[in-house]
Design a protein that fits this description.
Layout lengths: L1 H28 L7 E7 L6 H10 L6 E2 L2 E9 L4 H15 L3 E3 L4 H14 L3 E3 L17 E3 L4 H15 L3 E7 L2 H17 L2 E8 L7 H9 L4 E5 L6 H9 L5 E4 L8 H5 L7 E4 L1 H4 L10 H15 L6 H21 L7 H12 L4 E3 L2 E3 L15 E6 L2 E4 L2
Helix pairs in contact: 2-12, 3-4, 5-6, 12-13
Length: 395
């Protein structure tokens, strides 16, 4: 009888164990125990690109806490404006936290360096760097990389169209003595050739320089009708101020980066009339009412300035803000294929981003494809000018 009792008790224990295991599996499969979506963010919080990186980090403050009922974890690391640090940060986030997607890095060198580990991990990346070579051509490596920034030729097109329209025959260029300035040297040479404009000077300066008088004197001696400043933020103000100081009265053009930071404050009335490619993330209020991204851009501006102060909107925050919109749009489709934290989910998320069409963000309308990981096109920019301290569209 004792033996029978023991067998019965043993059977009940086994039944309880089986039932417990079933309950545990059911709990793991339920939404409350589903894997979180992990978004890695690698930006330049320190180093030479910190002003841009911290603006981008501000832009990530508006990411959704949940997508399709799944919690989202945002994991941030500083890449200190250094490509080696960017790679180390990516590997750390993937190996220790199993991120599903990466937003960043900030810089072009860091973003190029991130491609190899992204391919190794089969990890989709939305870079915030502008260079088109990061995403084109879409090959076996670049299939993992997307971006939320316009290309240099997108920026140059409205500027050179205006030059041609207004009869500019001779153009001088002054830009940063780095990859940014070098890219603009190439695009300017190509655009000048196409427009029948002579590029009479191509001067460079460091972002940290406190004077460019030598370069400006060479430019004035070359006799240009107009000058293009290929620089961003506060350092872009230096050539304009010294051009005016030396008596240059011709048209001055700037790149998209001039709409960022303290350029307006530093140039004051001297900055009035400079022509730039204008993003809706900065000048949406002056864009036509039928502009397809106007509503989304105005929403970004309202949310951003409510948190960070009047006049704080900028293209770099907009790029990061838009990256999280793209992720929010793509995740539901990826969840139908696999669970976060798996290679299958990462591939499904990559494929879902590639399939996004007509997604309105702060910087324009994004439409990707198997041969287009830029997303934005020429419609993302209008010709703009600085007028009494405000960036407005020129219609």
């Amino acid at each position: 009888m004792q033996a029978a009792f023991g067998q019965a008790m043993g059977g009940m224990a086994m039944l309880r164990a089986v039932l417990g295991a079933c309950v545990a599996l059911q709990m793991l499969a339920s939404p409350a125990f589903a894997a979180n979506i992990k978004v890695g963010i690698i930006l330049s919080a320190t180093g030479p690109a910190a002003a841009i990186g911290n603006a981008e980090r501000n832009g990530t403050a508006f990411g959704p806490a949940e997508i399709a009922g799944r919690k989202v974890d945002y994991l941030f690391l500083d890449e200190a404006s250094d490509s080696t640090a960017a790679v180390a940060a990516l590997r750390k986030l993937f190996q220790e936290s199993s991120i599903d997607i990466l937003v960043g890095p900030t810089t072009t060198p860091g973003s190029f360096a991130a491609i190899d580990p992204a391919v190794e991990y089969k990890l989709p990346v939305i870079t915030l760097a502008p260079v088109n070579a990061l995403v084109a051509p879409v090959d076996a490596r670049r299939r993992w990389i997307f971006k939320t920034t316009t290309n240099d030729d997108h920026e140059a097109t409205p500027l050179f169209a205006n030059m041609k329209k207004t009869g500019v025959k001779k153009l001088a260029l002054i830009g940063f003595g780095d990859s940014y300035g070098d890219a603009w040297s190439k695009v300017s040479a190509d655009m000048c050739a196409a427009a029948g404009i002579e590029l009479v000077a191509d001067e460079k300066y460091a972002r940290t320089d406190t004077t460019v008088v030598g370069q400006i004197l060479k430019i004035i001696a070359a006799g240009p009708d107009a000058v293009l400043i290929a620089a961003s933020g506060a350092p872009a103000a230096l050539p304009l101020l010294q051009l005016r100081e030396k008596g240059f009265a011709g048209q001055v053009y700037g790149t998209l980066g001039a709409t960022f930071g303290d350029f307006r404050k530093l140039t004051g009335v001297q900055g009035n009339g400079i022509l730039v490619p204008l993003s809706p993330a900065v000048g949406a209020a002056s864009f036509p009412d039928d502009y397809p991204a106007k509503k989304a851009a105005l929403e970004f501006i309202q949310r951003y300035e409510a948190k960070f102060g009047p006049g704080s909107r900028n293209i770099f925050a907009g790029s990061a803000y838009d990256a999280l919109i793209l992720i929010e749009q793509a995740v539901p489709a990826a969840l139908k294929v696999a669970e976060p934290g798996t290679a299958e989910f990462r591939e499904a998320l990559r494929s879902a981003i590639e399939g996004l069409k007509g997604v309105a963000g702060s910087r324009g309308v994004y439409s990707y494809g198997s041969n287009d990981h830029t997303g934005l096109d020429q419609t993302a920019l209008m010709l703009g000018k600085l007028e009494n301290g405000e960036w407005i569209a020129v219609r």
